[in-house]
Description:
- The complex is a heterodimer.
- By secondary structure, chain A is of the alpha/beta class.
- Chain A is 40% helix and 19% strand.
- In chain A, the strands form four sheets. A nine-stranded mixed sheet of chain A has the order 7-6-8-9-5-12-13-14-15, sandwiched between helices. A two-stranded antiparallel sheet of chain A has the order 1-2.
- In chain A, helix 4 (86-93) packs across helix 5 (97-108) and helix 8 packs across helix 9 (197-214).
- Chain B is α/β, with parallel strands linked by helices.
- In chain B, strand 12 and strand 13 (325-332) form a beta hairpin.
- Classes of the chains: A alpha/beta, B alpha/beta.
- The interface between A and B is large, with 65 and 62 residues.
- Strand 7 of chain A pairs antiparallel with strand 1 (63-64) of chain B, so a sheet runs across the interface.
- Chain A: Residues 127-314 form the RecA family profile domain.
- Chain A: One of its GO terms (cellular component) is Rad51B-Rad51C-Rad51D-XRCC2 complex.
Amino acid sequence: MNLPDQPAADHVLINKPMWTHMELPSRPTDVTKAATGSGSAGRKRAAVSAVRMRRPVSSLSLSSSVKGKLVRAGFQFTTDLQDLNPEHLSAEAGVSQQEALEALQAASSGHGVAPVTALELLQKEEEFRSIVTFCSQLDEALGGGVPVGKVTEICGAPGVGKTQLCLQLAVDVQVPAVFGGLGGQVLFVDTEGGFQVQRLVDLAGAAVRHCSLLAEDEEQRVAMTTFTVESILSNIFLVRCRDYVELLAELHLLPGFLSDRPRLRLLVIDSVAFPFLRLHDDLSQRTRLLQSLGLRLIAVATGHNIAVVTTNHMTTRLRGGQAQLAPALGDVWGHAPSIRLLLRWEESRRLASILKSPGHMDASVQYQITCQGFRDADQSERPQSKRPRTQTDQSASSRKNTGM
Amino acid sequence: MNWDRLQLKPRIISAIQRAHLKSVREVLVVSEPDLQKMTGLSRPDVQELLHAAATACRTHQPITALQLQRGECRRLESGLRLGTGCPVLDQLLRGGLPVGGVVELAGESGAGKTQLGLQLCLSVQYPVEHGGLSAGALYVCTEDPFPVRRLQQLISEQTSLRSDVPPSLIGRLRFSDNIYVEHAADLDSLQVCLSRRAALLLAQGRVRLVVVDSVAALFRCEFRPDDWLERNKQLLTISSMVHHLSHEFSAPILCINQVTDVFHQSESSSSSPSSSVSPALGLAWANQVTVRLMMCRLQATVSRGDQSSALRKLEVVFAPHLARGGRVLAVWREGLRGVLDPVLAPFGPDVAQQEKVLPLHLGSV
């Protein structure tokens, strides 16, 4: 993987994916290539095509034997393969005509992704709303709520309210846009059996009541006609996974599911720890699977602009002779979520703390779980005028910037 | 594994067979680059293989919560609850024990956990409209022998406990024929019992409730304190077996647990805030449990006719669909009955509901 030698001029370039890079002055190809002047011809071609994207041949989606033959014949980059016809290539590299044709097709398609500036990314992020939790203190601490496009983890001891918060978010993501919500759908992956429709009906009813009390103008009243308990229930898709293999299978099939449902804005996995903690006899496999799972979730979150929320258990860790509670699954998994929320008890109070976040201060707020769902502590339902987010953009984004 | 079922291209199937991959599960746990290396297939082919394997491994398509609520997918959410036989306790549990999931009942010895276990073994046999599941129960004893006499007493008094059910129906039920009793003296025999006997009875539909009395006993005597790693592994094995049975056959599993004393109320308040004891087996077990109930003995007693009983409190410590709360109950000849009496308000929350409970006279402590 080569990064550009000189950073581009004034602004920061963010390259994704990392293996695409601008054309560099070409270096001599490897000496261990087949004879004949094909190598020098390749070099000449590379020098001529100065400003074009090129990828190494090893990254093409071909079988490994074909790739090996191409590389040994001196075709290191896709630019070397340009302007060749299949017969010529098959003669030089010693591959069949069919394979040569496939190689040329693979080389010419898919030119990689152009770099994006940080300013563009910031503007894109500002556009996306966050998912409110209905606990205003927690929403403030998070700068609006659970962010879209990132992986958020909720950890805590059993019974503290992780599944409750997940169910609340599943209802809150559907709040119509005129009320400041996303109007999106949600896929709920349940591995523990904690998904109870009875409870979801309670939460949905409370959210509908809350919003109908807030409806002030005609637009909002019209939106309320489509925001009912039934419509809320119909936008929540449930999948039950009984073990980690079924969870991995579900994630393989996720891109197909997402492309059918462009309105999906939230993916909940409750919990990741439950199936993976059972895999205690082969820890290296578990580490590897968790790592790839984490990468896949990040890719889904950023690529499809959805909020990914996972829950995690707590285990006791021995640190310096003292037993402490720490999130389960170790540090390997700890790198996957960008935001980590810890829910805990303190005497009889429930506290939510932000353990890890790139954009917010560590903070602890108190919350409570009522029959209506996840709410602020010490407050009964107080209908506040919730205007769409555009007007509160300024305060929220400035809080985010100073939060670091 | 019959790979032809997956409808893949012949060259993919031959590549899989050359790589000696035996099942879809094996395919799914290998990473993509490794799979490419093992089979020598190109990236699109590997993607196709993974997609087909994932589709084969999936047990059901995603369904909406609305379909679940309407009862369109009985396998996932049957909407059934196992009633306890007492309306006050059923109100605490919003209908009864949930049918998929592990329910833990923890308490000190003498609190009445076995009593509730026996009562559930009887209430499961009633038809669905009376709060049962129309099937029997499997009772696994690990420490004390099965209380046969008490069971007989409960059976003979069913008509007085279940006044909501017509006596003719009660008379037709052959209670003791449908309760299967097993003894498991150590962890291995418990595993065998669950994986073979329980699975067989559940698959045949003869039982729809499994009671393990108690889980803690086996773990506490078999492991030394520094063996906690091995103990956790065994805990997870038993727990995964129990969860699998529960979800596969839609049957509640009641695990009775002991308690330990708590000297310092730590951050993880996994017990109810009012008690000084906490369920045994620690955080590792607590993470595996779906619903946690605790039963404790109270100081007051209550009498009724010629019987008197010490009061108990059944509390919901955590559950995904229940609020934290508790109900006071008493243990009589016919079983457990919740107590509704305004004088007892300090012991339990107010219950704004008129229930038919026999008149009580509070005895002094």
